[in-house]
Each structure stands twice: as structure tokens, then as C-alpha cells.
Design brief:
The complex is a heterodimer of chains A (about 120) and B (about 110).
Chain A (H helix, E strand, L loop, with lengths): L4 E3 L2 E4 L5 E6 L6 E7 L5 E8 L2 E5 L7 E4 L6 E5 L8 E8 L9 E2 L3 E5 L1
Parallel strand pairs in A: 2-11
Antiparallel strand pairs in A: 1-3, 3-8, 4-5, 4-9, 5-6, 7-8, 9-10, 9-11
Chain B lengths: L3 E3 L4 E4 L4 E7 L6 E7 L6 E6 L3 E5 L2 E6 L4 E6 L8 E8 L5 E3 L3 E6 L1
Parallel strand pairs in B: 2-11
Antiparallel strand pairs in B: 1-3, 3-8, 4-5, 4-9, 6-7, 7-8, 9-10, 9-11
Classes of the chains: A mainly beta (about 120), B mainly beta (about 110).
Chain lengths: ~120, ~110
């Protein structure tokens, strides 16, 4: 069964450093998403991406965040200058369709720890 | 005002009983509604989606949507210990943004 994969599973970085989180969505999916979940808190939408551009983004997704689909398979989230409060689990998701029938499949997540 | 609200629980039901999970949302223009299950330390797993008023059944799960009341629920029939998890309600609002509730922790007691 196809699945979303994410690497690395755990990333430790120092405050102020740049990190890139990587995702490989399901191959025939067209819509891609990033979410984060701070430990013990709810899943928060960051951004959606379609046709090589951002479709929607939340208030959390400020100038320090960027997304890219550098090739036909990878989807990345870059955090330019990490802060302690960026420590969280970051989930990538993909779906074949948008909206009501847009079932999103989540990857296993990358745990980001900023020290 | 929170976009999506759920009782955090914990909700405990005996094995074989019906578990009822509830969710309300604030954006009346919301289009799509999802229920995810999340085991501790794992990623959310989609259980059901619904976008029309009424009930939608899939096996032991039934999602119910009432747009007038801005209310979504999930019923789990014949609850099993393996159903013990946190259940997340998610809503796609009129701006195509996705909001999750904080989740309801369910424990099914053998």
C-alpha cells in the first residue's frame, strides 16, 4: 500500500540554525500539506501546496518557513532560523483531490528538537 | 473563538459498547469534515470524512453532520480495546484551511 514517507524521523538542531524536513508524498497525489503538533497539543495546519505553489497558509507559516517541491517526488519544509518554540512533530500529508473528497494521508512525522 | 472544539475526555466505555465523540466548529461556511484516529506517538490516520448533512456509515463507524448546528459526531459501535486512541475532528473551513480539534481520548475497557 502506498504511503507518505518523511525523513529524518528525528532532527536535533541549535536555535538559529536552518533545517529542512523532507517528505515523499504518495506518487499520484497532487495536494501536499504540512502540519505541526507541539507535544500534548493539537495538530496545527501550516500550509497546503498544489501545482508548484502555496494554496493556503496559516498564521503560523510566517517568513521563516518555506516549502518547495524540488523534483517530482520530494516536498520539503524549510525553517530558516529555528526558535525553541519550533520544537514539535512535523507531519507531511498528501491527497489526490481537494476538498470534500480530499482524503489526506499523513506521514509518520519528523520530531524536531531545537536546543 | 476556537475553530474546532472537542471534549478532551478521557472517555471510557466498556468493550462492546457504543462510543460517541462530538465536535463543534465555528465557521458556518466549512465544507468538509474529517475524523482521524491518533495513537500515542503516531501520526493521524483518517477514519472517515463527511460533507453532507446526515449520517455516513462505514463498518463500525458512523459519522453524523448537522451543518445548521455546526456539529459533527462519530459513533463507534461494538467498541474494541484496539479503538483506544485519541480521536481528532478536523474541519476544512471556507478558506480551504484545515483546523483540528484538540482530540478526545477514548479508552475501551476489556
Amino acid at each position: 500500500e502506498p504511503e507518505v514517507t518523511q525523513t529524518p524521523s528525528h532532527q536535533v538542531t541549535q536555535m538559529g540554525q536552518e533545517v529542512i524536513l523532507r517528505c515523499v508524498p504518495i506518487s499520484n497525489h497532487l495536494y501536499f500539506y504540512w502540519y505541526r503538533q507541539i507535544l500534548g497539543q493539537k495538530v496545527e495546519f501550516l500550509v497546503s501546496f498544489y501545482n508548484n505553489e502555496i494554496s493556503e497558509k496559516s498564521e503560523i507559516f510566517d517568513d521563516q518557513f518555506s516549502v518547495e517541491r524540488p523534483d517530482g517526488s520530494n516536498f520539503t519544509l524549510k525553517i530558516r532560523s529555528t526558535k525553541l518554540e519550533d520544537s514539535a512533530m512535523y507531519f507531511c500529508a498528501s491527497s489526490a483531490r481537494l476538498g470534500a473528497a480530499g482524503e489526506q494521508y499523513f506521514g509518520p512525522g519528523t520530531r524536531l528538537t531545537v536546543t | 473563538q476556537k475553530e474546532v472544539e472537542q471534549n478532551s475526555g478521557p472517555l471510557s466505555v466498556p468493550e462492546g459498547a457504543i462510543a460517541s465523540l462530538n465536535c463543534t466548529y465555528s465557521d458556518r461556511g466549512s465544507q468538509s469534515f474529517f475524523w482521524y484516529r491518533q495513537y500515542s506517538g503516531k501520526s493521524p490516520e483518517l477514519i472517515m470524512f463527511i460533507y453532507s448533512n446526515g449520517d455516513k456509515e462505514d463498518g463500525r463507524f458512523t459519522a453524523q453532520l448537522n451543518k445548521a448546528s455546526q456539529y459533527v459526531s462519530l459513533l463507534i459501535r461494538d467498541s474494541q480495546p484496539s479503538d483506544s486512541a485519541t480521536y481528532l475532528c478536523a474541519v476544512e473551513n471556507s478558506g480551504n484551511q484545515f483546523y483540528f480539534g484538540t482530540g478526545t481520548s477514548l479508552t475501551v475497557i476489556p
